[in-house]
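Margin note from the TA: students keep mixing up input and output lines. Inputs are the sequences; the output is the structure of the whole complex. Example:
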Amino acid sequence: MSLKVPRLPLAEGAADRVLRELGITKLPIDPKEIAAVKGIKVEAAPATSKGFSGMLAQWDTNFGIMYATHINSIGFQRFSIAHELGHYFIPGHSEQVLAHGAHTSHAGFGSRDPYEQEADFFASALLMPSSLIKPIIARQEDGLDLVKTIAQECVTSLTASAVRYARMSRSAVAAVLSEGGVIDFCLFSEAMKEAKVRWPRAGSPLPAGSLTRRFGADRANVASAREDSAQADLIDWFDCPKSHIVSEDVIGLGNYGKTLTVLYSARLTAEAEGLDEEDEDEKLEESWTPRFRR
Ligand SMILES: [Zn+2]
């Protein structure tokens, strides 16, 4: 049966299990080494092969991975291999994606196919395991510099690092990938969701007057990986009930042609933490309240 929605905890849990079983506890994680342990052959595709990030193939009981090299980024190549490993390790994937022969992937959070999404979140959790990146997130202030630290320590792309950061952080954070004035992809942290922001549709325009829009309109900013930052209002960015002042950090992603934005707010973070504490208090009260009505 084919999937309608991605099962992110299942995908991430599969990655955690692989690391645990192989006893891998140090960054950076080497996806080629994991493939080697499983007897999976890994090969680089020629840089002239474009239009895919990687491939998984099976012959008899053997598996092979080919990864694209047309994007000259070690982080992207490692992510592509990890994505294919996702199809190998996530329960039910290989049967589904290899049903009609070799599988061609589009890794990097752009796909709407739940199998591709699960493989992307597997790759994130494999290369940036929660137990190893939580300490990094805890010791550094929120914002783009933290994304850069994650990317450096995990040897991952800035985009993948920002997405993982938004997924793991207890702070109010949104990671947004855009190109040509429109949003490609966006991910909110749990604390950001407390501000009742609605997901923008892929292809929604960037807010008029935003730093990201101005920044991305100048190709030189993107191509030479410039950075900038400003204050913004969340209500200009997303459909949400109230105005919230947030920080907006922006970086150009070079040849990739896209712009990465990190939105974050210490105030929203504190508010979400307050809510958390209330929840905890309620839970405590509940667990201590005798149940008379049983
Ligand atoms: Zn795939």
